[in-house]
Amino acid sequence: MEEKEVSGDEQLQLQLEPVTAENLKTVRTLVASIFPVSYSDKFYQECLENDLVGVIVKNGEAIAIVAVKPENFESGLVLYIRSFGVHPRHRESGIGSFLMNFVEQKCKSLNLVNAMLHVQTSNKKAIKFYKNRGFIITSTVPKYYQRCEPPDAYIMWKSIL
Ligand SMILES: CC(C)(COP(=O)(O)OP(=O)(O)OC[C@H]1O[C@@H](n2cnc3c(N)ncnc32)[C@H](O)[C@@H]1OP(=O)(O)O)[C@@H](O)C(=O)NCCC(=O)NCCS
Questions:
Q1: Residue 69 has pLDDT above 90, yes or no
Q2: Which residue among the candidates 80, 130, 144, 154 is catalytic per the annotation?
Q3: Is 5 part of any domain?
Q4: What are the pLDDT digits (tens) for 145-157?
Q5: Could you give the residue ranges of the DSSP H alpha helices within the chain?
Q6: CATH number at residue 91
Q7: 128 lines ligand 1 (CB under 6 A)
Q8: For the residues 120-135, what does the mean pLDDT come to?
Q9: Best CA proximity match to 67, nearest among 22, 110, 108, 106
Q10: pLDDT averaged over the chain?
Q11: Domain assignment of residue 91, given as a range
Q12: N-acetyltransferase domain spans which residues (predicted)?
């Protein structure tokens, strides 16, 4: 089992940086290691130098990513959370909360009232994390994920403003 890194002062040093040609490889490695779904090359291309995407790189290794995008969804434009994750070794030290601040800031700067995401129905830890930060489950999308078990997703929403 991988050991969790000592990270008492990690929060003080957190800094998001853009995805660049230089860090793209480590970002891809991070994403492949934390999500059960694979992201397309188009996703990574869209991430490059995009101010709606941030990564935390520590000692040359990407350890966290947040990617958001305004999207039209049912009742109107929302801030959709496309990717949100922290490397297992760095969890439970406040990095996820730091990424959530980024989401809220982007919502405000884009004048969007709601943030929204899909989460696998079995992902209890992430669901609890989001609920503790004001997100609520509004619906279930059966068979949302391909090649994942379970394939179903919850849609979670938060009103930011
Ligand atoms: C969900 C996820 C992003 C949370 O990231 P994280 O860095 O662990 O988040 P935080 O450290 O801010 O918070 C996690 C918990 O640790 C606690 N915590 C934070 N700092 C802590 C510390 N110094 N000591 C002990 N606990 C701490 C928080 O209170 C929080 O508990 P809560 O969820 O009950 O409120 C992470 O588990 C993850 O990457 N999961 C896999 C990817 C994923 O599922 N993403 C979502 C897809 S939709």
A1: yes
A2: 80
A3: no
A4: 998 999 999 999 9
A5: 24-34, 41-47, 95-109, 124-132
A6: 3.40.630.30
A7: yes
A8: 98
A9: 106
A10: 92
A11: 13-159
A12: 14-161
